[in-house]
Specification:
Distance between the termini of chain B: 40 Å
Number of strands of chain A: 0
Structural class of chain B: alpha/beta
Helix content of chain B: 25-40%
Largest sheet of chain A: none
Largest interface: A-B, 25 and 36 residues
Strand content of chain B: 25-35%
Strand content of chain A: under 5%
CATH class of the largest domain in chain B: Alpha Beta
CATH topology of the largest domain in chain B: Rossmann fold
Radius of gyration of chain B: 24 Å
CATH superfamily of the largest domain in chain B: P-loop containing nucleotide triphosphate hydrolases
Number of helices of chain A: 14
Shape of chain A: globular
Radius of gyration of chain A: 19 Å
Number of helices of chain B: 12
Distance between the termini of chain A: 33 Å
Oligomer: heterodimer
Bound molecules: adenosine-5'-triphosphate, magnesium ion
Order of helices and strands of chain A: HHHHHHHHHHHHHH
Chain lengths: 248, 317
């Protein structure tokens, strides 16, 4: 009860922080432009002749997020440490967990908002034909979960350093690994030079593999669990890092 | 209210705080003095639960800061060094956030914000962004945050740093007033503040407490305590020092200044001299034209120096 009140207070503050800086608006505009551009021009959504949003639109998300999510998450802890407000935050009568979850939620909601703002796409396909809106919905859910996983990783990177730039780079690297682990060319190489087991093992860490199901309209508990555990594990790592900084 | 026992903190191989113990009761204001890098801020960071101690314990109102951090933190307000505040908020937004996270809501929150805005004179900048505040106003904003829930315990790291003289005065008054009902620790580099505000002071050096007492007691440690300063006109300095040197109560005499035919000397008392020295010096100087004669109370800055840098202080004396 009190726990969620504290979390919500932190979340509100962080959300406010996004919208007082131009960064939030720039981010949303870039995200929408990228979505539109890639869907209509690169994937040639209109020429494909089939009224399905899923492939031309959602296929790009793992790649958009690769840069956009670390940009959203980079300030979470790095800025707090640079300015010294972390000393205020962690001497308030709240637990470090409440602060970590509150901050994460704020950014995740923000990403959710950006995603929701792509709704004109959905309206367009519905105008052009009769797509399976259920599949679109699961793909949205999957995309948001995937964004959450990237974001939690960005949290870890942000807790590692006082510099937002360094935090951004670290987060992009880790996320890139999570994509490439399931990227077909990489899998092929792995299968050629190593055993199929290894390839399977590596692939099981990839966001691509787990996002796939959502795009087909399947809500597989294993995929959901994968994203949730990446989030849980990363947030836990964040708390460990924050603690070790202070232990000296 | 605040109880600190054998608190220690090591950073790598460095012992920043090395076995510090003290306690502060309600109604006390404890001044924390010490040279740069002595470990004042580190001690405060442990007391407030920001840094986990490497050794020892600290408790606030009976709650151990490590075992029961939330209960302990509830009782406490903290102004960190350099007064950090969220730059992306307005002063008003920041204070509201501080009130909310302290569990205040509705009318209680509104009243709390209004109260600290008045106390810290933040009205003119209330809707300004923290980022564009002047240093003094940022300091006051962060100070306001620390007292927003009217805590029983206050930990203030250099609360008057960066304030103009009027504000320094106001904040000192405020600390002293609040000190009647709360337990307060504050650190400072301004020694007059100790007299103006503290009921007790601790001098800390290289992580250890080297002196602890009321400002009066600390001053007594000064060589200067009870020394007598004399200024006379028209006499050679050698004659003055020689004559005073023969007074039985005097331990030694130093020449302070010789200018325009005036000689200023200071006579330091033997340990048994107490208040009789001024009288004795006055009698010895009877035939001269005395312009000034007063006894020193002992000076904190001199105590501070002689304790925290023993070698150089001796040379200066
Ligand atoms: N996070 C840290 N890592 C390593 N060393 C540290 C850390 N924080 C403080 N120190 C060291 O601990 C010592 C005590 O620092 P502290 O900030 O407590 O001093 P202080 O008494 O507050 O000094 P000042 O008057 O300058 O504020 C210093 O030598 C400092 O370099
Ligand atoms: Mg300090």
């Amino acid at each position: 009860m009190n726990t969620w009140r504290n979390v919500w207070t932190i979340t509100k503050r962080e959300l406010g922080a996004y919208f007082t800086s131009p960064l939030a608006y720039i981010f949303i505009v870039i995200f929408l432009l990228l979505c539109g551009f890639f869907t209509f021009f690169v994937a040639r959504f209109l020429d494909a002749g089939e009224a399905s949003l899923v492939r031309p639109f959602f296929d790009w998300h793992p790649w958009f997020y690769l840069f956009l999510v670390p940009a959203v998450g980079m300030r979470l802890w790095a800025e707090e440490r640079r300015v010294g407000t972390i000393e205020l935050l962690l001497t308030m009568p709240i637990t470090a967990w409440q602060a970590i979850v509150g901050k994460f939620l704020a950014s995740w909601l923000f990403l959710g908002l950006a995603l929701v703002l792509t709704f004109p796409m959905v309206m367009t396909v519905n105008y052009l034909g009769s797509p399976d809106n259920g599949v679109i919905l699961t793909a949205y859910v999957g995309s948001w979960l995937m964004a959450g996983a990237y974001l939690a990783i960005s949290c870890v990177a942000s807790a590692l350093t006082r510099s937002q730039v360094v935090s951004f780079i670290i987060a992009v690297m880790i996320c890139l690994f999570l994509i490439l682990a399931g990227y077909p060319p990489v899998i092929n190489v792995l299968e050629q030079f190593a055993s199929g087991h290894l390839a399977d093992f590596v692939t099981s860490f990839s966001v691509m593999t787990h996002f796939e199901g959502f795009q087909k309209g399947v809500l597989d508990s294993r995929d959901i669990l994968f994203f949730l555990s990446v989030i849980g594990f990363s947030l836990f790592t964040t708390s460990v890092i924050l603690r070790t900084h202070r232990a000296g | 209210m605040i109880k600190v026992q054998n608190l220690a903190k090591t950073f790598g191989a460095k012992r920043a705080v090395d076995g510090v113990s003290f306690s502060v009761d309600r109604g006390e204001v404890l001044g924390f003095l010490g040279p740069n890098g002595a470990g004042k801020s580190t001690t405060m960071r442990m007391v407030t639960g920001f840094l986990p101690p490497s050794g020892g314990t600290a408790s606030i109102g009976g709650f151990d800061i490590v075992e029961h951090p939330i209960q302990a933190k509830r009782l406490m307000g903290y102004l960190p060094e350099n007064a950090p505040a969220y730059t992306d908020m307005t002063v008003y937004g920041f204070l509201n956030f501080a009130a909310e996270i302290r569990g205040l809501s509705g009318d209680a929150k509104k009243q709390a914000v209004t109260r600290v805005v008045e106390m810290c004179f933040l009205e003119p900048v209330l809707h300004q962004s923290v980022e564009t505040l002047s240093k003094g106003y940022r300091h006051r904003t962060c100070f306001a945050q620390s007292i927003i829930h009217d805590p029983d315990v206050l930990v203030l790291d250099e609360p008057t740093d960066g304030l103009d003289p009027n504000q320094k005065h106001e904040i000192r008054q405020l600390i002293r007033r609040m000190g009647q009902k709360k337990a307060i620790i504050f650190s400072t580099h301004i020694l007059e503040e100790v007299d103006a505000v503290c009921s007790r002071a601790i001098i800390i050096d290289r992580g250890r407490i080297v002196a602890n007492g009321t400002p009066q007691e600390l001053r007594q440690k000064s060589e200067w305590a009870g020394a007598v300063t004399l200024r006379v006109k028209g006499v050679a300095s050698s004659a003055v020092t020689a004559r005073l040197g023969q007074v039985p109560l005097v331990k030694r005499v130093t020449l302070v200044e010789e200018k325009d035919g005036r000689v200023t000397v200071r006579a330091f008392p033997r340990s048994d001299a107490n208040s009789a020295l001024a009288q004795a010096v006055g009698e010895a100087a009877r035939e001269w034209q005395i312009e000034q004669l007063h006894s020193e109370e002992g000076r904190l800055d001199e105590v501070f120096r002689s304790i925290t840098m023993p070698d150089t202080a001796k040379e200066a004396a």
